């Protein structure tokens, strides 16, 4: 059945229940809009030229008509318009007013005589208000009415904090007026107030607001008391609604803009790390601009990437975790935003906070508010900052530099091999080498070969912001530019951002605001990080220790430039070739725009209409040079993507204080969301003309063309009410209903409510003196979620053509025509306490999130006919804590020390899967399996153990059974699998100390992640390739004693490991027989027993170094003791990282003034200059991800081992 | 401000809100990228190409089976564990079920549309794939498989006998369908049928050929098959006349050599690193040399450096093989006592410890060579490192195989086969020679002289079955039928080398894929594992899901040992 178009629905009587709901919603939208239009018609009038009222004549007459009619007549005849509150006008009733020519002044005087209305003139507007009343009520936003009484008294003075330090930018406003200013950098202000009885309100975030009666004084010196954030802090909540934090029944994380830019960061996400409790941020690749994973309160979705919804100034913007293309990581789209444009970030952690965002808010919402011109000093302000940082690679995975390439285990230099089990270097042995022209030359090591390859990266950040604040509006224009040269040669990244943010008051009640952000970001070449052979890190680490990487810099064979790579072995690319001839880049043009109208219908009612649009076009390109490994004729790959999301929002607001005790804020809104994407993905797998990178240059038959389109529409209506009692207790309820195009018709509509309660205990009951503030909050909420487009019906895929024959097939993903929306329910309870003069603040939350009906693609045994099926899973539950502790250990006149702590812990459990399915496989690599059973925790890693003697009566009980070749083997019985870890941290603690001494500030951001483990596939391969120190020698033993005796005496030390070594020096054992003559003394073995069956009876032969031992070369012995058993390379994920350090010096105010500046600062900044890992290996646990098929999988790391890089630099800020 | 202007703004805003609000909402979720229904012709091409590739890959030049059947040995420790030492692990069957899912769609569509041609082909392909799988693994999910759409996520493993029974029945049905097509409606697109170009006759012959293959496969189990209601002798007899009649009947797919998907596994498009580590095995090379078999020169290169006990100084010679291909060979002097192979074609002995394999036949040469480029051992012929070659193609069955099956049946006596064992035996040899373009092309080769070689002549053989199986083994070069024949007959009599992970025997089966760990799955899996009989080569305490366990087909047959 088809939903009728707008014009049809009224006339079609047959509607299902769904359609009725639908129609109701449409009707409601209509009503809202038409009533809005009517009010505007009535209330708005024309512009005009300034004239004196007494000099203008008008002809006005009324006969038992409302006053409004008279005003309309005046508007028609003059250029004046009127502003009023309609209800006040109505109170004047119908009037009789003889029609004749009078001056405008006289007309008005006569009309209003006998009412309680008075008029005033502002520009071309005549404002009619009730006498002695507060005039037009403060509107929904911060706008104050433009009514200014005659000005009489100038008050000036200074505002300081408790320690006497001047406070700049303090808002100084005359009470009940819009008349105000802000303090300058030296804390001084000057304000002309109406009269000596006026009161002035001083306010600034972080301090208690003070109201001071002027009482005839001309000088006011004010000291502001610091305020605990919770007392008056305003945070941005769902739909951009600013709320006092105290009134919220749920936890909201908040980061101010200046906290984000303490050190220059290329991505806003990196700048958030460690700063909010309950938020885990991991940079998965090692290079600037690589994707960053944000997990709020743990990953509770098994289906999507668990990334939160990002909303910039009310515009939902696209972002995703997996941005792989051709093996490179193109970085998150959210990094398009310039951190310097951000005023504030609010993190809505749970559904309670995010419920109004509906479908997509299940993983939380990151609300970004950009800087505006509002709230600044009147007039123009210019802010400029520039920063340069140097990225210095300083730590590489340590490798042995004693033995050269080789893997046969014989004493042979095999440069063709990736393994390093060859002859000893630096001892005078001579071998023919790749560049020795057939001569035998001494074998020497090049321990600096990694260092020689990487380079110091440079990132240059420049921003200029121009803001203006005027009576009628404000704006901010900014331009930012980042250029970055990577630590991998020939890699880069750049971004240009232009932002325009403006607000204009069309009338006192009608504001239009618009934001536009234009970003052009890209890279000519991003390093490939997929661990395949075009990955420079892998090709570099697989370079033999006897190879001087500098000798490979000329990467074309002479005379065959562009055709034939110059490399020292067949099995790998030349790392220089990879980075110079396989550039993989992208260019993204993005426009985020918003137009919003806010209208204050009356003092209680407001209306907002908003249109937002986020669109970007991203062109990705990967070139592969001729003679690339696996692509002898090169290749060319392009992916052009277009993504667009538009949102229309309508929101009606109501705000009222009913009495001293009760207040109500209510919102009702409607949302229309539309997503459109298209993509073209073409690959020429071989090229005809070398070096010509076009699709049409593809070899016939070697070109594939793909195009895709996606579309999704979603309609939602929502409402929210917040009821306050005595500013002590607040109850919030929200409700939303969505209709999504992606769900089956019968399940397409879904409803979800939330409720939360905030109680200010410190206001309700008497608290001890040392408690300044205490608040308790509880909340419960639901969020519904739809599915991706086209998840319902099976369709055929197209395989590459076979010659001229087309091939189509049905893939293994079984779609589901009966999908239901996901419902995520969360409960949270929290407490906020400020004590000891607000020197210590605690904000703690415990939460439980239950995801029901989660739509996920569950892995099925392929023989069922499907590899995966989309199902609605039973129940996935996350539980955890987020705790924020803020402290000020020292605060005096010159010195202030602050310490903030953010603690997070989360565990996610699969409570129920689907009917008949008890097991969820995630990924599996090299025998390490990440998987979860019903009832188990997400993140568990399992493996198959070593096969051992299981007969307890055997003297060899527990001994490994080696095969007839003398190698350890795995126990293949699935019932014997063992858990070797879980990739989740036990907790995450972010610590931000900051020390301010006079004009100096020292800021640091420390990130401590405790517990958890990961399997390092790289360490396994590095060991296998003979590159780790541990591969030089097996378990140490006493050469003077019998080996079998030693092993039997101390089985734990030996069994499961290998014994022997690379040569006699490294504990290698002597060979027997003919091998003794041709081999190094490197006999090695896997201690255990071998099984023989004699006459049907199992007996064991010792393989313990005695006469029956099966001897192995050290490579084989090491390999079979390590490679099949992932626990050998499973490491603790605990680490402590010093993410940011910034030392800033603010130039003295006197000096700055002399330069006609408003402020200036200079800082030294450093990122990631220290890291400690419990594992003690040079693999960063933060990068415990493996990229596969463009998707990041957690818990398993694979060649994700860029060197650790410290960034050092400086930053200069100037405000004009 | 002008009232009209402001009204206009809000009107525009409301207009934007409503525009398209209902429009397309219902259609928004119709997938514009792919079709819900497509012609079976396109699916057929997918099924045929993927099946042929899968079957080829099982036996190609670096496969475990090629190592087990001792066509190939690996000359480095790369894969030597699996190929030379039989250290096998779990083997995925995803690719096969992926094809079967699509076969089922063709079958469903054919029944719905009443297209008997498609139905017949779908039954042949279904039987072919399931047959290959049960040959490899033993019990497999069969009767309940491919029903995820109906909520059957954990199909049971069927007993192997039942699977074979189903295969034979389906093949018979297919033979019947092909014989009764109505060309007006039972049509398929000749371009889509990349195997037979829509020839129902050839499809029928292929189906009958497969019946011969499977009934003979079950020969040792004929009593048990009788109990299941299948008389394998009778089925063989009735299929014997309808099977492949010449090599032009062979279900063949050629490598196109234009993309990695349609090129040989060893060509540059698939192997950047030329797979020189694949060496012909000494067992095969020795046998072909002994028989003066020209196929050796189609399959292998001469050594690059050849020991010569008759010279004192090294010399470089150009050698031309019987097909006119020239090679440069360096002759190196060797002392009469040197333990070196002086042949122009040298294979790598089976199961040598890696350290020994690397220096094999190096004699007194103390120069080091990249291990895979040891010049004293032959390489597999260059054609296996090209993207495409006329003699490297994918055949799901050969005429040669059919003739050897008939020869074997004639020899056994309980089958009624026209023609003598000897005539079918010779036909089998000739079919293989033809497949490799030997007759006519090989300079000075005379097939009759070959037949009368005492080591070839069937009449001269003391163990005639052994002789048939030996020639069948040779003609099955880089194919997997020889492994299944060896399991059934123990012929040819192959032995492990010095290193074999699980003792002095060749492996018997593929291990099941690493199982899904859902309890419901494990119940089925463990039942299937319980049906396996662990031989003494399976380590104590190890799961019976092992490459040395006997499946139903081998249990109680005393074969291959």
Task: List key phrases describing it.
heterodimer; A: mainly beta; 5-stranded mixed beta sheet; 11% helix; disordered N terminus; B: 561 residues; mainly alpha; 19 helices
Please explain how this structure is put together.
The complex is a heterodimer of chains A (1216) and B (561). With 1216 residues, chain A is mostly beta strands. In chain A, 11% of the residues lie in helices and 45% in strands. Chain A is built from 19 helices and 62 strands. Chain A has a 22-stranded antiparallel barrel. Chain A has a 5-stranded mixed beta sheet with strand order 15-22-23-18-19. Chain A has a 4-stranded antiparallel beta sheet with strand order 8-7-10-11, with no helix packed on it. The two termini of chain A are 63 Å apart. Chain B is mostly helical and 561 residues long. Chain B has helices spanning 3-18, 40-59, 64-68, 80-83, 94-113, 116-137, 160-179, 200-217, 222-227, 232-240, 282-290, 295-299, 354-358, 399-412, 421-435, 447-451, 464-475, 481-489, 519-530, and strands at residues 72-74, 140-141, 157-158, 252-254, 278-280, 305-308, 315-320, 326-333, 393-395, 533-534, 549-550. In chain B, the strands form 5 sheets. Chain B has a 3-stranded mixed beta sheet with strand order 6-8-7, with no helix packed on it. A two-stranded antiparallel sheet of chain B has the order 1-5. In chain B, helix 6 (116-137) runs parallel beside helix 8. Chain B is globular. The termini of chain B are far apart. The model of chain B has no long low-confidence stretch (mean pLDDT 93). Chains A and B meet through helix 2, strand 34, strand 35, strand 39 and strand 40 of A and helix 1, helix 2, helix 5, strand 2 and helix 13 of B.
